[in-house]
Amino acid sequence: MAHSGAVSRFRSQSAFASYCGVAPIEVSSGDIQRHRLSRAGDRQLNYALHVMAMAQIKRATQGRDYYQRKRAAGKIHKEAMRCLKRRLADVVYRTMIKDTETSLTPTP
Question: The pTM is what?
Fold first, then answer.
């Protein structure tokens, strides 16, 4: 994701997720523990992750299986989407790290 700049500027997957606006924020009340998506962060990256999540849900993918497991665990659609978007942000971060490592290795 060229929009985010160099991956080295993020100290972890969590920092990247926070930058994208998909890191969960706790909004618990009493015995009920809930999380919601942050409205902070880069809205364009958040939208890209949302489109990725919707594409995952519409097709028979690992993302759809993950989403359905979250729904079966009692999460509502928005909560399950938040979880899926966070997981996708982790995949994007790992891919960016891998791309950086492979682009820095000299070719024989």
Answer: 0.78
